[in-house]
Amino acid sequence: MTHNYNLRNLPQRTLKENENKKENENKNKNENKNKNENNYENENNYENDKINRFFDTYDKYIEKQNSRIEIKLKLLNGNKYDFCVNKNITLKKLYTKIEYLTNINCITFYFVKNHQRFPKFEEIQDWMTINDFNFNLNETNSLYLVLRLGGPMEPFKYIKEDWFKH
Length: 166
Hints:
CATH architecture of the largest domain: Roll
Low-confidence stretches: 1-7
Number of domains: 2
CATH topology of the largest domain: Ubiquitin-like (UB roll)
Mean pLDDT: 75
Largest sheet: 5 strands, mixed
Number of strands: 5
Oligomer: single chain
CATH superfamily of the largest domain: Phosphatidylinositol 3-kinase Catalytic Subunit, Chain A, domain 1
């Protein structure tokens, strides 16, 4: 669609009106310039916030990865299970997680690591975590699940030096 304007019928502007118009245009330009500068600053702040959030999230991810322990569980029948757990997990939670994985009741087994027996489920105390039993963060840790078939066993005694000697 085209518009045809008849330029002859347009009113003639006075000199004063033209000056006012130029002043208003200059004010608008200055205001727009200030707005653009503010927008640029806001955009920079937004980009910086976005970058900071990315690195914060990445740092949390790395921290989370460093707080995880990889465990390789071996059963006597040859089954193997690989999984990761938080380094601060309690032994009771570990036992229940493995009970869920293997479908073996946690009362009927115990673990052996480096020729040392873990406490049985009923011997676990609330303060016991995986960190108390020398699990390495950067290595794969092997646990052997042993079924309790009966017979007396001496009660578990936690001696820190036994677990952390090399």
